[in-house]
Amino acid sequence: MNVLAAPRALAGSWLKQPPGLAILFLTQMWEIFSYYGMRTLLVYYMTKQLHFGQQHASLVYGVYIATFYFTPILGGVVSDRWLGRKRSVIIGAAIMSFGHFLMASESLLYFALAAIALGNGLFLPSLPSQIDDLYAKDDPRRGSAYNFYYVGINVGGLLAPLVCGTLGELYGWHWGFGAAGVGMLAGLAIYTLGARWLPPERPRVRDVVPDATPALPRAAMRQRVLTLFAIFLCVTVFRGAYEQTGNTIALWADVGLDRTLGSFTIPMTWFQSLNPLLVIFLTPLLVALWTKQAGRGREMSPAKKMSMGAFTVAAAFLMLAFVDATSNATGGTGHAHWLWLALFFLVFTIGELFVLPIGLSLFARLAPARHAATTIAAWYLASFSGNLFAGALGTLWSAMGHAAFFGAMGGVAVVAGTLLRLVDPAVARAEAPADGVRPDDWQEKQA
Predict the structure, then answer these.
(1) Which segments of 217-301 does DSSP mark as H helices, in order?
(2) What are the structural domains, with CATH classification, of the chain?
(3) Model-level pTM greater than 0.90?
(4) pLDDT range class, residue 86, cuts 50, 70, 90
(5) DSSP run (H or E) holding 337
(6) 179: how many CB neighbours lie within 10 A of its CB?
């Protein structure tokens, strides 16, 4: 029996995709809702409720975020070798829910944060690694699946500040944390109730009989691992510019932008909602475009798409550099019109959609059999290294003029785009048949 084929029927399919994708989409949406809902309140809670000093609160926050993105590497190994992906998702979600509810006790803050990070280590790599198994190897919908999945991430990210943030600020911090916990439980319920639509579990590494199945040629395996590592480095560089939206871009919205709309001043935090909103609306348009191109045999390769996306993000930053320099020129007000920032997010989001969901899809396709969760965890580790790089770059904000800084971020994105374009031949070789066996065929035999 071919365990990597799509589910038995597509009746009741969602957006012309297998029903299992909707289950994974909604599970991830609620997990992101819980994560960003808690994260939105965390620093305010520590400084206003627990009376932590700013430096102490920032240190706790930074260690938590770093740990959150590091634990999936360990969790991916546990999932692949012992628990399996489905058990890992269920156990991880339950632990995270428990951690969110522990936030109700001020004395258990560190235990709560540790529980959420630990549960995430099992959950995060094990959920998206199931997407590829919903499709047969020749199913043309495989590429667009990760774009729809990415929408789920952004729907959760959009709702979290509106729900958890509002409850926390207006009714008490614990109400916001409780809402995050309820969201995580909702995701767990959707996943367990929709289990019949999910792909069968792949054999765990420890259950595989040595030499019972043909192995991928060593040269092909080495090619794939090196290719994934090269993409990892490219995405780390890209995130150095990409992650500025929550840091220096937010600062510029406060000090370098004219946010008036008639007699109303637009809150600076509202601009942060533009990115997830645009992801939700632009994704179907881009998927339709790529599907049409694929039907004509003109769709770009994954690395070329990612390269184009990085160059698009570079264009967005260079536009801001020009706008800021112009607004500060002789006779300028020093404040750019808010529409320029809205246009920045439009261009920026288009570029983002060419990079991040495509990269996740590529990691899933090139993942060695029985190591899917570990490979997906490596993709998320790029968020860890990329955020560290972005933080280091962000320290230049106060040392450089705003226009110069935005120009430098455009240069960082150009470097990432150039590197991704250079990696394209390696990606093509990694996805090509090896000794007459295509990677997908080999993975099916292994499973």
Answers:
(1) 218-242, 248-255, 274-295
(2) 14-201 (1.20.1250.20), 218-447 (1.20.1250.20)
(3) no
(4) very high
(5) strand 336-337
(6) 24
